[in-house]
Amino acid sequence: MKKIAVFTSGGDAPGMNACVRAAVRSAIYNGVEVVGIIRGYKGMIEGDFQPLSSHSVSNIIQKGGTILKSARCEEFKTKEGRAKAYDQLVKNGIEGLIAIGGDGSFTGADLFLKDFDIPTIGCPGTIDNDLYGTDYTIGFDTAVNTALDAIDKIRDTADSHDRVFMIEVMGRNSGYIAVQSGIGGGAELVMIPEYQTTSEEVIHALSKGKENKKASSIVVVAEGKVAGRVHDIAKDVKEALPHFDIRVSTLGHIQRGGKPSALDRILASRMGVAAAEALLNGRKNEMVGIIDDKIVFTPFSDAISKSKPLNDDLVKMVNVLSI
Ligand code: F6P
């Protein structure tokens, strides 16, 4: 392989830049030319390519977002869109791809390889930590730390006013961010899509807290399938417990930004290097992951279709620690 391309796609995640840097430098180290595709599959279709040198990825390891920009692309879901993208790759002499993104990005890569034989290796970049085949995804640790910082601050005001705060965190269909930030932030309760907690259970937990002389409480709510559902739950609780002073806070996209944590920078660097080496060694259609501190590869089809279970011990721990 003489020339490869790197792109980021889907929701951005802190550490994507560290991964781009590692993939680019590792490929160049191995004598291969690299281009960056701007705005993921959209840029691939439009032929928006930029040559990348080792210098062009200097001073980005510490930056949030992605220097290659990102987009969600409807056109790539069509065969015509993928054909246009393939033509652009051929025209530019690109023989392999490194995709940094989440399940949508790998679904696209999987379809692409079925239509056109273009080898792709993926690096899991999403704050959601919802991909099978890796203990952690790039951006998750930073997002949890950002959520924690916000929870700590909200706790100060909850405590001053004797209030209940219901805090919605991101994660799409996964409860990973909620569970980890809930434990780290000392939440009284965590609501996640993997377990259906009813409003009645929330009401019961908060009433019990009051009996145990808790003046303020934090409930962390994973957005689940419907962002904003925290407002419906808060409405039920307010109706049942009118004497409680309840506020809702949605953390939103703040969780996607900011400097990547040390863990994310190192995870992203390891994955970027492994992806470039794997592609040059003839691997294709797989996602790089790290399980038990070892680099592993998982076919895209498994990474996107198999569910990644939550650690039940952590979920149970929330109840134990919130008495
Ligand atoms: O996948 C990352 C994520 O931030 C999810 O946690 C969230 O549900 C979604 O993206 C939000 O997407 P958008 O930025 O397109 O609104």
From TrEMBL:
Which terms are listed as keywords in the entry?
Answer: Allosteric enzyme, ATP-binding, Cytoplasm, Glycolysis, Kinase, Magnesium, Metal-binding, Nucleotide-binding, Transferase
Q: Any idea which residues are catalytic in this one?
A: D128
Q: Which residues bind ADP?
A: R21, A22, A23, V24, R25, R155, G186, A187, E188, K214, A215, S216
Entry's family note: Belongs to the phosphofructokinase type A (PFKA) family. ATP-dependent PFK group I subfamily. Prokaryotic clade 'B1' sub-subfamily.
Cofactor(s) needed: Mg(2+)
Keyword Amino-acid biosynthesis set for record: no
For the ligand (substrate), the binding residues are T126, I127, D128, R163, M170, G171, R172, E223, R247, H253, I254, Q255, R256
The residues that hold ATP are G11, R72, C73, G102, D103, G104, S105
Native source species = Sediminitomix flava
Q: In which pathway does it act?
A: Carbohydrate degradation; glycolysis; D-glyceraldehyde 3-phosphate and glycerone phosphate from D-glucose: step 3/4
Per its record, how is this protein called by name? Answer: ATP-dependent 6-phosphofructokinase
